Structure formats: structure tokens, C-alpha cells
């Protein structure tokens, strides 16, 4: 089946050579240089620095301290707070810290 039969795009690997579109295809004008020439991971500065240790601390808080707090929460106090708010706060903190720690300026 060819692209003329279905009226849509059909990927043809033979139309590409060394990442370049052949046969008069449109050029990528988005300005995405990282797509054309990606940086090798070994060339970037990706060390386990203070951001990583901050993330490890939040993981320990979310998976050890928070469940122990929920478990040891006195039954005489508001149980809804213990079952909804106490798990929600570490989850939000973990999500925000994970995004912050993995993005680089």
C-alpha cells in the first residue's frame, strides 16, 4: 500500500539517508539544533550533586517518615487528616522535587 492509496503519511525508510530527507522533502526549520547534533551524555555535566542528595532525602521522607507518621497518628485526632493530607503532602513534595532535581538550567 502506498501513500496515494490511503491519502496519509506512510513512513518510507528509503527516503531518508543519514538523517536527511531525500527527494525534495521539506527541511526542518524549527531551529532544533539538538535534534540535528545531539550532545553525547558523557559530554554533559551530569554528576550526582546536591540536587540528587536533596531528592534522596525527600524520597526517604516520603517512603519512611510519612508512613510512620500515618501509622503512629493518634486515633483520637482527625483520622481524615491522617489518611488524606499526610500522604498528599509528601507526594506533592516528591513530585516537585523530582522535577526540580532532574531539570538543569
UniProtKB/TrEMBL annotation:
Keywords: Membrane, Transmembrane, Transmembrane helix. The chain crosses the membrane at residues 53-73, 79-101. Residues 1-39 are annotated as: Disordered. Residues 25-36 have a biased composition (Acidic residues). Pfam families: DUF7977 (PF25932). This is Uncharacterized protein.
